[in-house]
Structure formats: C-alpha cells, structure tokens
Design a protein that fits this description.
Elements lengths: L5 H11 L12 H5 L17 H6 L8 H7 L5 E6 L4 E8 L6 E2 L3 E2 L6 E6 L18 H7 L2 E5 L10 E2 L14 H20 L4 E6 L1 H12 L7 E7 L19 H10 L4 E2 L4 H10 L7 H12 L11 H7 L4 E2 H13 L9 H8 L16 E5 L8 H10 L3 E6 L9 H4 L3 H14 L3
Parallel strand pairs: 5-6, 5-8, 8-9, 9-12, 12-13
Antiparallel strand pairs: 1-2, 2-6, 2-7, 3-4, 10-11
Length: about 425
Amino acid sequence: MLFIPYQGMAVILLALVGSTASPTQGPPPSELRHPSAGSISATASLNLQGRQRREALHPHTFLTTPELIQARGYPSEVHHVISPDGYILQMHRIPCGRRHLVNGRRCDTGGRRRVVFIQHCLLCSSADFVMNDPDQALGFIMADAGYDVWLGNTRGNVYSRRHIHLSPKEPEFWDFSWDEFAKYDMPAMLQHVREITGVPILDYIGHSMGTTIFFVMMNYHPHINNWIRVMVGMAPVAYMHNKRAPISAFAPFVNIIDRFLEDKGFNEIANSNSGFSTLASAACAPTSILRFICSLIHFLIDGPSSDYVDKDYLPVIFAHTPAGTSRRVVTHFLQVIASEQFQAYDHGPKRNLKMYGSVAPPVYSLGNIKVPVGIFWSENDWVADPRDVYQTAAELPNVTLYQRVPPRDFSHTDFLWAENARWFVYNPLMEFLDSYH
C-alpha cells in the first residue's frame, strides 16, 4: 500500500483551498433570468493580464468554454437557469457540428434532433469536454455526429458562482455538497434543456462525479427516469472505499479536517480566479521547472497519469482545472470512502435528525436508476477503482454495457483529455447510444 506522510498531504490539501475572492462579474440579473439563446456571455471570463505571457503559452490557455468552442469553428450558446434554492447555473451548448452550419450561422441537422447532456467531474467544468482538437474532444465529436450538445456546470464552479441573494463571500453560499447538485441543480438544467429543445427525452453522459449526481438524482426525483433515454457512465463513482489515490488517506479524519477548515473560514476549494489560472498554467508549461508540482498534485488526487495527454496542452488544462467547488463536496466524497456506504452528506447527529429524520445519513439506492446504463471503466483508475465500479454495476438494475478500456495504463482523467480516448471510449460510447435511437 502506498504511504504518503500525512503532513505532506496536509500541505497539498491546504494548497488546493482557494481564496474567497469576489465572483467574476457576469451579466446583470435581468439577463440571467431571461437568457438569450445564441448570445455569448462574459460571465466567468478568464482573460488575464500580460500579452507576453499569453503569447508564450498555447493560444487557448485563457479562453472560456464558449470561446474554446468558437475558436474551433463551432456555434456556441450560453444559457442560465436558476435552481430552486437560488443558484444561477451556467450551461454551454453546441447546437450542431461544423458541417451542419448553414452560412456559418444557422444549424441544419435535417430535422433529426438528438440531444445529449454531458456532466463534468469533481473540480471540473464544461471546458473539460472541449479542451482538445475537434477529432479528440467529446463535445466536438458528438456535435459532428449530429448531436445537440449541452454541457452542465454545478453550483460553485467558475461558471456558476452566482446566487440571487447570496455572495460567494458569505459562508452560506458554500453550504452544499453533491446532495444539492442532485436534488436541485441537475433537475433544473435538464428541464431547461427539454424546454429549449422541445425534446422530452435525451441522452446523459457523466464522468466521475457527473455519474454520482445522476445516481443520487434518481433517489430524489425518480420521475426523471422518464426524461432519459440512456445513460453513459465514464469512470462511474458511487462506492469509493477501494479508491487508491493518496488523498484517500484523509478519509478516516474527514470530520476533524472539515471542522478545522470551517473554523479557519475555508469554504471554497480551488477557486479558479485569474491569478490562480495564471500561476497554474505557467507552472505546468512544458518548459517549467515547477512542472513536477502539477504532476504531484494530480497524483495525490487522481493517481498516476498516462502519456496519452498532449504535454503541450497541459497549460490549457491547468488553467481551467481545478474549476472550484465547496469544501463540503470534497468532504462528502471522503465521508463515502470512510463509511464504505453510498450515502447522503453526514452533517452530524443533530442536523441529520433535522434534515433526514434520523441521526445517520440515509443510504442511496442504485435500484432507482431504471434507464439503460453503459459503463466504461479502466484498470488503472485510482479514483473509480474497478472493484468499486463492479459493485456499482452489480446494484444497477439495467446495465446493458460494461466495457473495460483496453489500455492497461488508461487513467481517470484520460477519459477527458487523452488523445486516444476517441478510439477506446468515445467511438464505442456513440455506438452504444446509437443502438437506442
């Protein structure tokens, strides 16, 4: 078993805790309440100072998700939806592929509309599905295949740091875990997609936490099974007690650590502000002498990485990821590791009793997921360990595809950024979806 000194890991954890900087300015509330399809918002712009620094890195390093999409020649839309508890969530849409554009503007897919919603992982954002060449990034590949592609962003990440009443400077803003993602955010985003597209049933793809949210959502809203034709889980995460990534060593002490960080006022993890993105992208550049730090942090959280990611593109990746979240989201995952249960957030006996009606948090049932599920997993995944994935698949009622990714060294983040992900994941993924259309 890999041993990492706890003191060293604590330093890394605290390094990941971001500041409580003010939110990036976005459109006024009136625009957020009445989004204009096809408009490009300035929300969460990551444009940074320093033309020389920008020119020294990949030209896509500091582009927002809509800008990344447009830079590749695809149409891009920004949509906003307000969750039932007031969080303003930003979604990004690629309504069609480049070959479906008429006069470079209007989409013409021949009347056939296949809608897919893709949800990101922990500390990630919509950018993760468009941060590669068009023949390698999942968002572009699916758009070119005729899909109307929607990319979600959960509350608290760089694109969804707004609330109708609360400010990110207030601790109350960060009082959420992935329970709230599943209970409030995902249903609101999916309903918005259905309303805008006029398509009542869509496909769903999740990576890592994007699958966790889906599984939990069906416990709170089982009727949403009727909105989903088929679900694909890349590196699905429900059970996690076999997770090998070194950060798992914190799990037995999670509640102590959480109380300590709360007392110190650390409510947000890895705020991806302009200064953070500048530092991360420069440190992770191919010629940087500090690049080993990027590799170390990646190893502590996600385990070993392969050589399938373009090293010249690492500054782009680290300028966008981590994209920020609440401390409680990370705490929730560590609680799941410690308890060996797929369960709701443990607030402690008093608050549990008030929220759940019991002193212990309820356990989620994977039996509530009725839609067909396709699973892609890899042997070298230290987050979604094969043993945990197997247990998850065994409890899902309708797994119709259970596919191991062939390369034995394919890692957790290779599902997002690997140059060979198209051949080993995305092509068979789309074949699986096609079998249900």
